[in-house]
Amino acid sequence: MAGCVARRALTVGGRWWSRSLTGARGPRPLCAAGGAGALTPAATTTTRRHLSSRNRPEGKVLETVGVFEVPKQNGKYETGQLFLHSVFGYRGVVLFPWQARLYDRDVASAAPEKAENPAGHGSKEVKGKTHTYYQVLIDARDCPHISQRSQTEAVTFLANHDDSRALYAIPGLDYVSHEDILPYSSTDQVPIQHELFERFLLYDQTKAPPFVARETLRAWQEKNHPWLELSDVHRETTENIRVTVIPFYMGMREAQNSHVYWWRYCIRLENLDSDVVQLRERHWRIFSLSGTLETVRGRGVVGREPVLSKEQPAFQYSSHVSLQASSGHMWGTFRFERPDGSHFDVRIPPFSLESNKDEKTPPSGLHW
């Protein structure tokens, strides 16, 4: 479509899209390549004169899907806010916010290192600060394009059948930090393709944004609050590789006359440099309140050895851990390889595994 070009093209999550937010004046249309969902803000007439065939995917027709809005520096985005993920490039919609405690070791005070603590790892004194994250739905059209860079499920439950040890996940959900939100608006009454979009949100043209929470969304959030809530976020950077960890308590199971507690943890690896590196190994240490200390080594993560480059700077995945105690700690390192064959270790910030011991109600699925 004419005018759907931009000053700087980026490849994000294996997809082509462009953005030009600096110095923007007024709203700019967002365009999608071939309707696949790769968003681009339209350029000015001056920029249009410099259009080159290099600036868009071969054979793709750009279709307008919305208009960029100015990102919020302060405050929160409301339920129903449409957005583009600034790192992974997918379209999404905000369901509701969470206030998390962010423990950022990159900005920790210059205090001396502590001695080894009983959990077996040294740590800086880090104070948590409040930070906003959002529970969001991902557009199903974009999931195939980001699947090699980010898992498209971010909520996992223990199955709520007493005789089952199974886990089940809800696809197309994610937790997104406030600074990763690039807001946009659309005149489409169903701008996000996800089976839960119309079940959770109602179009109301008198509102801004024009999508409001249905009672089903409020009920789902209230029922599953202990299992959905994001409480602590841990972050640390080593040699320009930033590791962010978000743990979630999943519940407890009784097995062989003992209690087994389960957690899920989501990890994002981000290359802040232009040098290409590849994740080769992981080394975990898992301490349980019962007094056990487990060491886990292995190749890659979730069966992959992702490459982090300037074009594909981030990788996000999730995994699970169980303990025979109601709390514990995890920490460790990722080993990366440079193009010249040399290796370096990146610290995984230590994080606590805490249970909601007072919560007796099992997580509820999507059947009301």
Automatic annotation (TrEMBL):
MF annotations from Gene Ontology: DNA binding
Pfam families: DUF525, YccV-like
Compartments in which it is found: Mitochondrion matrix; Nucleus
A GO cellular component entry from the record: mitochondrial nucleoid
Stretches assigned to the ApaG domain: 235-360
Keywords: DNA damage, DNA repair, Mitochondrion, Nucleus, Phosphoprotein, Transit peptide
Main location: mitochondrion
Single GO BP term: error-free translesion synthesis
Record's compositionally biased regions (Low complexity): 33-46
Keyword Cell division: no
Record region (Disordered): 33-56
UniProt xrefs under PANTHER family: F-BOX ONLY PROTEIN 3 (PTHR14289), POLYMERASE DELTA-INTERACTING PROTEIN 2 (PTHR14289:SF16)
Free-text function comment from the UniProt entry: Involved in DNA damage tolerance by regulating translesion synthesis (TLS) of templates carrying DNA damage lesions such as 8oxoG and abasic sites. May act by stimulating activity of DNA polymerases involved in TLS, such as PRIMPOL and polymerase delta (POLD1).
The protein, known as: Polymerase delta-interacting protein 2
Taxonomic source organism: Sus scrofa
Gene that produces this protein: POLDIP2
